[in-house]
Amino acid sequence: MITPAYVRTMTAYNTEMNRRLYEPAARLSDAQRKEERGAFWGSLHKTLAHILWGDRQWMSRLADWEKPEGALKQSALWIEDFAELKRLRYAADERIERWAEGVTQPWLDEPLSWFSGAAQREITLPRSLLVAHFFNHQTHHRGQAHALITALGERTADTDLFLVVPQIIGA
User: Fold this and answer.
1) Structure pTM?
2) Which class is 4-102+114-169 in CATH?
């Protein structure tokens, strides 16, 4: 389904896109970031917090990271301070990059079993599908964050994969 090269490409994209969202988000006031604006998780801050929570939850399964605090329903509330959220985001991206360097095709081809709190049952699926979901989840919610940022009058750099990846891999 996916390859280690795909994992490394998407990891580089993930890191760069987080930078491209957090920089304009930092230019907003705390009140603007935390204003309820009708997004799935409510505010920009909550959306960014949920993305990081989800990344850490998935990495607890994929790479034995410590699980994030709280349950899915509280995932948008676990970090209130934006500076701390940004610091933890950038630190997580560095760890994800190190993890991606070690991903191999045999590892991707193996199944992973875990208890899903969201589904309330044991699930076993190929790691390749779960890694694809990991990146898809990030992209989905970053699109919401991007819409909130632009609605608040800030601009981001390009977000399209085909425009971003050549810039970050030097193609």
Assistant:
1) 0.91
2) mainly alpha
